[in-house]
């Protein structure tokens, strides 16, 4: 079980970034350190050591060089492992369940969550990721089918997606822009049916569509509510117009 932290508790901070570029630039690391620092000050924790890895989240924590060192340090100092966010350890609910049994740990962004709450949070996050993956796969299939049927707009998006994938292994701003455009196309496609349903229901304004989508429980790619400008960008990307 995860230990209860109180005043003067020793903690081992563990940070993770996914790419060498992030590790070299410090992108993400500064934010993680700040989360842990604030949590430590607020809860009276003492940071006795810090470790960081540059590794994919798909690699189990026990197979990452510096995470293994952090776990060893926890035993050596009778300390609690602390990460900025739960996904810095893993996005896999089974892995999180195993970590709960292996070492007492806390998450800086929810410092009072116990082991059961962390397990449930991981399970819900994984379920949401699975849902998004299924929705994205369906949207891509729909886009491909429309392209094969002769839809010029869909063909252009497929071509842009293929171009983005072709340069995915290269680094630089061009690759990042292509990847972002591809993701925006895919996210827009997941909203096509909902937006068209609103149009069929008589919605004729951007604000009205935003309200319609929010009422139906539809969320943006980031999980937020729609605003008129968000709807405009999506409709423009889909090539739709109000009747």
From TrEMBL:
Keywords of the record: DNA recombination, DNA-binding
Boundaries of every Resolvase/invertase-type recombinase catalytic domain copy: 10-147
CDD domains, per the entry: Ser_Recombinase
UniProt xrefs under InterPro entries: Resolv_N (IPR006119), Resolvase-like_N_sf (IPR036162), SSR_resolvase (IPR050639)
SMART domains noted in UniProt: Resolvase
Domain of life (superkingdom): Bacteria
Name this protein carries in UniProt: Recombinase family protein
Organismal lineage: Bacteria, Pseudomonadati, Pseudomonadota, Gammaproteobacteria, Pseudomonadales
């Amino acid at each position: 079980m995860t230990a209860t932290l109180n005043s003067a508790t020793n903690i081992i901070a563990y940070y993770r970034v996914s790419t060498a570029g992030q590790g070299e630039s410090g992108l993400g690391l500064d934010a993680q350190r700040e989360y842990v620092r604030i949590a430590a000050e607020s809860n009276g924790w003492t940071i006795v050591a810090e470790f960081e890895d540059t590794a994919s989240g798909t690699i189990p924590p026990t197979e990452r060089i510096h995470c293994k060192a952090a776990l060893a340090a926890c035993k050596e100092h009778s300390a609690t492992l602390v990460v900025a966010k739960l996904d810095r350890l893993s996005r896999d609910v089974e892995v999180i369940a195993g970590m709960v049994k292996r070492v007492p740990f806390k998450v800086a962004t929810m410092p009072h969550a116990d082991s059961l709450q962390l397990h449930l949070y991981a399970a819900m996050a994984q379920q949401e990721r699975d849902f998004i993956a299924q929705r994205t796969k369906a949207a891509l299939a729909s886009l491909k089918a429309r392209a094969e049927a002769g839809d010029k707009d869909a063909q252009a998006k497929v071509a842009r997606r293929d171009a983005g994938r072709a340069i995915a292994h290269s680094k630089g701003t061009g690759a990042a822009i292509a990847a972002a455009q591809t993701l925006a196309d895919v996210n827009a496609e997941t909203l096509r049916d909902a937006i068209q349903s609103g149009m069929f229901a008589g919605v004729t304004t951007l604000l009205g569509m935003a309200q319609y989508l929010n009422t139906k429980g539809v969320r943006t790619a980031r999980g937020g509510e729609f605003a008129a400008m968000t709807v405009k960008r999506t409709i423009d990307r889909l090539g739709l117009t109000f009747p």
